[in-house]
Prior knowledge:
Distance between the termini: 34 Å
Number of helices: 15
Largest sheet: 5 strands, mixed
Strand content: 15-25%
Mean pLDDT: 92
Shape: globular
Radius of gyration: 22 Å
Helix content: 25-40%
CATH architecture of the largest domain: Alpha-Beta Horseshoe
CATH superfamily of the largest domain: tm_1862 like domain
Amino acid sequence: MSQIEAGHLARILETAGISRAAPTASADVVVLHACTVTERADRDAFRLLRRLRREHPAALLAVTGCLAERAPDALARRPEVDLVAGHRTAEALPRLIAEAAAGLIPGKVAALGVSPEEVLRSPLSWTTGPGRTRAFLKIQDGCGRRCAFCIVPSLRGDERSAPLAEVEEAIHALGSQGVPEIVLCGVHLAAFGTERSESLAALLGRLGSHPPPCRVRLSSLEPMEAGDAVVDLVAAGGVVAPHLHLPLQSGSDTVLRRMRRGMTAARFRTLLLRAWRANPRIHLATDVIAGFPGESDAEFAETEALLRDLPLASLHVFPFSPRTGTAAASLVPNTGVPGVVVSRRAARLRALDSELRSRFARSHDGREADLVTLNGGVGLTETYVETALPAGSPPPGTRFRARLALRADGTLEAQPA
Length: 417
């Protein structure tokens, strides 16, 4: 999401006559669009701020994004920072930069929060450009859920979506420009269209009826709202890549209740098995948090057992770290899991992830695939498996049919079919 929004900001600045500086040039303006989903993201952003100031000592340095919303005063106190601009200021960023340069913004901080006008404005934006072989299309923003571990809903505002017809038009336009794959993104993508009496299932149905000249992939979907219709449409393949990323976070119902996930392990199992039975080749992925406050050995064992029992292709493992301002952070003083235990559990889950990825790669040996060439001699299948490409393969950004072969090191190589 941050990359998409940074690309959107870049287009706004370029439209206002602010051109991109060459990578090795000293810039007049530097904009850092910063994430704040974890404490580590904050540390990385502050480290990058110091580096950017060293590299561009005379530049006006602006910080935008969720970090600007969450910690505007802390940012404004930093000597490296000249402007802190919230989400609602995207369209006004060129003007704000000029005002900051003239010293007209008291305290360095511009408007924060999500305004009523922003709620009504379409969140549609995308990122493409030199070096990119796929497009990432943001079609939804905001989240009405309040998971105990997540700070994002408090920073993003209410759920809002681009109109379905606008999204469909953008997908066809990007595909007609030669983009081989478009990834649909949102803060809560499964909630797409709900405030408009539209839906993600309706969008996917439209794309199936009127296929664009490209492949479409979904980013992460909350399983509570994904629904059978979306699962069936993704599993069917065709225009939409058979790849579902459904965050679980824990396989223990008691932990899920503490997380405020509003779902059960049984519902997650039913949803995944529905997709797998419809298409045994589908890539099924999930997120899991190791060491959520109060997680006992028995609860962790429930999670590990569920993950081993399901036809998953990959895991994204996150050791729990408290996020200031979330309900989960308040649990740590009384029920926090020792760091050494968190690390041990995360290591076990990462080892399982390696097993799952290896098994899924082996299942592609000898099969044909719909491949998109990425940079660096790598191809990406419709089932989200990376393959090596031999010399002389089609250039980056090409889509073609390929035959896959397992190599001695357990990775896959693709040859044009």
